[in-house]
Write a structure and sequence with these properties.
Helices cover 49% and strands 3% of the residues. It has helices at residues 3-9, 22-25, 30-33, 45-65, 81-95, 102-109, 123-129, 133-151, and strands at residues 16-18, 40-42.
């Protein structure tokens, strides 16, 4: 029996999970991307889901701290009023209607863009983009602390520590 099959028998369908969300880690320099053992933890499905909701709240706070709001659930709050009015006018003209409905907005959201949006920067790009190497290390340690505080794990490896090294010098 392979390791993943063993995990599934134990109810660990999600198996391994990272302490730093992938959206951030994927933007790190190579020496910070490698999966050091402190960044990978074994979680059951229920804990993985709980961890995800805790991570979402931390990501929302980071969005506020770095002026990088999360882009989800169709919120209009971050679109300037004049821009919102312009976009609504474009949609009403496109659909030849006097009033927009949520269904029309959803239909418009599914349309493939014809040109890339070069002025748009993702939440993760904004958050990670301004971090120098020492700030990346503090960022990762912050996620490790967040993991300990929110999940209160009971079965970490004996030498697991928030302060363990972050960079893998052999990766660059």
């Amino acid at each position: 029996m392979d390791l993943m099959e063993y995990y599934k028998q134990l109810g660990l369908q999600n198996g391994l999970s990272g302490t730093v969300p992938r959206c951030y880690r994927s933007r790190f320099p190579g020496m910070y991307k490698t999966h050091l053992s402190h960044e990978i933890v074994l979680m059951c499905s229920a804990c993985h889901q709980l961890s995800g909701s805790h991570d979402q709240r931390r990501m929302e706070n980071l969005g506020i701290e770095h002026a990088a709001p999360l882009e989800h659930d169709g919120r209009k709050a971050n679109i300037p009023e004049d821009r919102l009015e312009h976009l609504e006018a474009v949609l009403m003209s496109y659909f030849d209607v006097q009033q927009l409905t949520p269904e029309l907005v959803e239909q418009a959201a599914k349309v493939e863009p014809r040109k890339p949006q070069t002025e748009w920067t993702s939440h993760a790009d904004k958050v990670v983009g301004g971090l120098d190497p020492s700030a990346i290390e503090a960022f990762v340690r912050g996620w490790r602390s967040h993991f300990l505080e929110t999940m209160k794990p009971q079965f970490l490896p004996p030498h697991w520590s928030v302060d363990s090294r972050v960079a893998n010098s052999s990766a660059e």
